[in-house]
Amino acid sequence: PGRSPNPATSRATLEHSLKTQTVLVATHQGSPVARVATNARGYTSEQIGGVYTDPVWRNRGVSRWLMAHLLDDLRRRTVNASLFVKLDNHPAQELYRSLGFSFESPFRISYYH
């Protein structure tokens, strides 16, 4: 809050993710409409983050399709998947449950400046 995105930093972060993580994007007529990605890798598990669908494309199954492909990729590599979802993000919770995720416990991340 209170800060504008820095295009150079955003680009560097994206380039790093493309080199070190799995990033899947759905497009329509050359424009991105949804994205899923891993954002952390361990020896036996990868964390999924950065799941986003353009509001115009929500509720059409695009993120479900991308998530299914990402989870298939992780299974092929015998890697477990984990993720964090906000307690009030009910659409995401519904999607993740339908894909076989279970919720272990609530937690809170506190950011300090």
Q: Quick summary of this structure?
A:
Helix content is 34%, strand content 27%. It has 113 residues and is of the alpha+beta class.
Q: Please report the number of helical segments.
A: 3
Uncertain parts: none
Structural class: alpha+beta
Spatial strand order of the main sheet: 1-2-3-4
Largest sheet: 4 strands, mixed
Kindly report the oligomeric state of this protein. single chain
Which secondary structure elements does this structure contain, and how are they paired or packed?
Blueprint lengths: L6 H14 L2 E6 L2 E11 L3 E9 L8 H15 L3 E4 L6 H9 L15
Parallel strand pairs: 3-4
Antiparallel strand pairs: 1-2, 2-3
Give structural notes.
The mean pLDDT is 91. 34% of the residues lie in helices and 27% in strands. Strands 1-2-3-4 form a four-stranded mixed sheet, covered by helices on one side. With 113 residues, it is of the alpha+beta class. It is globular.
